[in-house]
Amino acid sequence: MPIHWRVAAWMAVGVVPAFLIFGSRSATAIFALLILAGAGFAALRLRGHVREPLEELTRRARGARPGDTLPSRIRGAPEIEALTEALGEWSEDVAAELGETAAARNHLESILEAMAEGVLVFDADARIVLGNPAAERLLDSPRGVEGKTCLEVFRDEALDRALRDAIEGRPVETVEFRTGAGRVVQASLAPIAGDAENGVETVVAVLHDLTDIRQAERIRSDFVANVSHEFKTPLTSIRGYAETIAAETPGDAHKEFARIIERNARDLESLVNDMLDLARLEAEPPSALDTFDLSTVIHEQVSRYRSVPEAAAIAIEVDCPSIRIRADRERLGTALANLIDNAVRYNRPDGDVRVQASASESMVAIAVADSGYGIPHEGRSRIFERFFRLDRARTRQGGGTGLGLAIARHAVESQGGTLTVDSTIGSGSTFTIRLPA
Ligand code: ADP
């Protein structure tokens, strides 16, 4: 019932006690009329001061959209005016906050659009929920990637696996993959946690275009391989003639010159062979993985060194149980050959070398330890760089090219493994290959 009717009804109820008090009909009638007039007047005031302002406020609130402000002044009863003012101020605060949020979102969108790197956002089902224009250009997919899964868009299992690892909270590294249009792209994945119960909510992938870099690397590597290949035949010929001259020329001085030519030609041949090995390792992916007994490969490489004269005084010991391993056999052999070669060459004259293998559930480790002079701390990371030698004079004498460890590391890393070094000055170094089991 409207409020003025309610007030009038209550006033009418007041007539009954008035009749009992005044006892006279006319007094009661006048009093009742006055009361009725008062009630009518109060009802009219209530309508103007309460009902109409409330109706106005309701109408404005219904018509308002998010971000609109409500009027802060509507004439009416003081309580209604206070309520209107409070609602007006509140709606202004909400509108200001919505404005700030929209500005921040526009700002972020502008940054995403201006970025040279592609950005894709995946949800917890590995579906793309957002992609910036750079990502769309990189993937040659003008729109239409949103809502699709990673596998549908990229058809790359390694990337899909990495994404699922990120979603499940496992650590992930960068992944390199090829797009349908042949671009080489590197993706760095960053999981973004939701609340504690739901774990990772989204994964942000930042995509870098490596096509030009990889192409330049391939051109460089092809160039090195071609030049090295061209050097091989003339070098073999120079070494052969120098050997013949050294053997057949009378006179010590000429013999010595010919031997120097021969020795240098031999060093150059080693360098050219190492450069070719490295270029081949870089150019080709590992061949199909074989399953074989690790101890056979280790014994093969060790027996080659036992027959080399420089290694005669060095005791080479092997400690390897029979371990079945799945790897690129040739590359593993190349890595081991380089490590054993170094362990022999950089050892003490009567030192020893120990090759030890062990297997756990997830990995196989092969350690090549020597009893040489050790490697200073500052050189330990640099020895894997191409042409880096710690002691140039000594290593050149020993026929080193500075490429052996670069080759070994590449041979191991290209099949998902690692090669690390541990060394103590004065007592020796241990190089460890770790391969996934
Ligand atoms: P190199 O052909 O000169 O031996 P490597 O790449 O195999 O080239 O090794 C790089 C450098 O690392 C070597 O010149 C040597 O100084 C150092 N080095 C490698 N292996 C050992 C080792 N077992 N003990 C001490 N120094 C080593």
Briefly summarize what is shown.
By secondary structure, this protein is an alpha+beta fold. The chain has helices at residues 3-13, 15-22, 25-63, 78-114, 133-138, 150-154, 157-167, 211-248, 252-283, 294-306, 329-345, 392-397, 404-413; strands at 118-123, 128-131, 175-178, 184-193, 200-209, 290-293, 315-319, 324-327, 352-359, 363-370, 418-424, 428-436.
Word description of this protein:
The chain has 13 helices and twelve strands. The chain has a five-stranded antiparallel beta sheet. A five-stranded mixed beta sheet has the order 7-9-10-12-11. Strands 6-8 form a two-stranded antiparallel sheet. The longest helix has 39 residues, at 25-63. It is 53% helix and 18% strand. By secondary structure, it is of the alpha+beta class. The chain has helices at 3-13, 15-22, 25-63, 78-114, 133-138, 150-154, 157-167, 211-248, 252-283, 294-306, 329-345, 392-397, 404-413; strands at residues 118-123, 128-131, 175-178, 184-193, 200-209, 290-293, 315-319, 324-327, 352-359, 363-370, 418-424, 428-436.
